Amino acid sequence: MLESEYQKPRQLPAHLRRPESSEPPFAFEIRPAEPQDIPDIREIYNHYVSNSVVTFDERPMSIKAWRAKFAFLKKLGHPLLVAVSPGDQVLGYALVQPWRPKSGYRFTVEDAIYLRPAATRKGLGAALLRALVDASEEAGLRTMIAVISDSGAEASIKLHLELGFQEVGRMGGVGYKFNRSLGTITLQKTLTPSRRKKSPADASQKPRTPFWRRSKPSGA
Ligand SMILES: CC(C)(COP(=O)(O)OP(=O)(O)OC[C@H]1O[C@@H](n2cnc3c(N)ncnc32)[C@H](O)[C@@H]1OP(=O)(O)O)[C@@H](O)C(=O)NCCC(=O)NCCS
Question: Residue 33 Cα, ligand 1 centroid: separation in angstroms?
Answer without folding.
Answer: 22
